[in-house]
């Protein structure tokens, strides 16, 4: 599922594709719902839970970073990402548990690579949550190494990948 981009990099819905998620720039008003998505993510249950237990996506973060959300026609946020431009890195990417498997992650990656291209970047670094590595490999990233655990915040090693955007 892809969405054409406007000159600003925002996704447009294609005519005749009712119900297709649209991507828009996040606002400070999205902060609480993005925080709930991070903290409630099924991917961070069990021994991964401490990583996101106190995590907060605040309005200040949204205002200073490239944060975009995928939302349905009713405005429900299905997922989001945050792109850091310097140095280029995908800082956050989450898809709501009940929206996974519907192409939302690929839609967000397509949008993010469009934004990265517009910023004249060649590639974006991704330090992945271990269970998400397969997804990033499936969208074209290649593994470049491992980021070692940094207790107490991160208790496990994470795959480091590079996602080409050209």
SSE blueprint and pairings:
Elements: E1 22-25, H1 31-39, H2 49-52, H3 59-64, E2 66-71, E3 77-85, E4 88-95, H4 104-118, E5 123-127, H5 133-138, E6 142-147, E7 158-164
Parallel strand pairs: 4-5
Antiparallel strand pairs: 1-2, 2-3, 3-4, 5-7, 6-7
Top keywords for this entry?
about 170 residues; alpha+beta; 5 helices
Briefly characterize the structure:
The chain has 166 residues and is α+β, with helices and mostly antiparallel strands. The protein has 5 helices and 7 strands.
Topology pattern, helix = H, strand = E: EHHHEEEHEHEE
Looking across the biggest beta sheet, what order are the strands in? 1-2-3-4-5-7-6
Low-confidence stretches: 1-16
User: Mean pLDDT score, rounded?
Assistant: 89
Percent strand equals 25-35%
Q: Please estimate the helix content.
A: 10-25%
Q: Report the end-to-end length measured between terminal Cα atoms.
A: 19 Å
- Total beta-strand segments: 7
Number of helices: 5
Radius of gyration: 15 Å
The main pleated sheet reads as:
7 strands, mixed
**Class based on secondary structure composition and strand pairing:** alpha+beta
Apparent shape: globular
Please characterize this protein's 3D structure.
It is a single chain. This protein is α+β, with helices and mostly antiparallel strands and 166 residues long. It has helices spanning 31-39, 49-52, 59-64, 104-118, 133-138, and strands at residues 22-25, 66-71, 77-85, 88-95, 123-127, 142-147, 158-164. A hairpin with a 2-residue loop joins β3 and β4. The protein starts with 21 loop residues before the first strand and ends with a strand.
């Amino acid at each position: 599922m892809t969405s054409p981009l406007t000159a600003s990099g925002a996704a447009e819905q294609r005519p005749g594709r009712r119900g297709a998620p649209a991507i828009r720039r996040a606002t400070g008003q999205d902060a609480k719902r993005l925080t709930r998505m991070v903290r409630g993510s099924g991917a961070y249950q069990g021994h991964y839970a401490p990583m996101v237990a106190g995590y907060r996506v605040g309005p200040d973060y949204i205002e200073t970073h490239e944060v975009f959300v995928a939302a349905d026609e009713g405005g429900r946020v299905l997922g989001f990402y945050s792109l850091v431009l310097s140095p280029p890195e995908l800082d956050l990417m989450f898809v709501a548990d009940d929206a996974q498997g519907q192409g939302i992650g690929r839609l967000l990656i397509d949008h993010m690579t469009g934004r990265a291209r517009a910023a004249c970047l060649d590639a974006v670094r991704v330090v992945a949550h271990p269970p998400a590595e397969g997804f990033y490999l499936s969208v074209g990233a290649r593994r470049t190494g491992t980021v070692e655990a940094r207790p107490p915040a991160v208790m496990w090693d994470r795959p480091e990948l590079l996602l080409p955007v050209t």
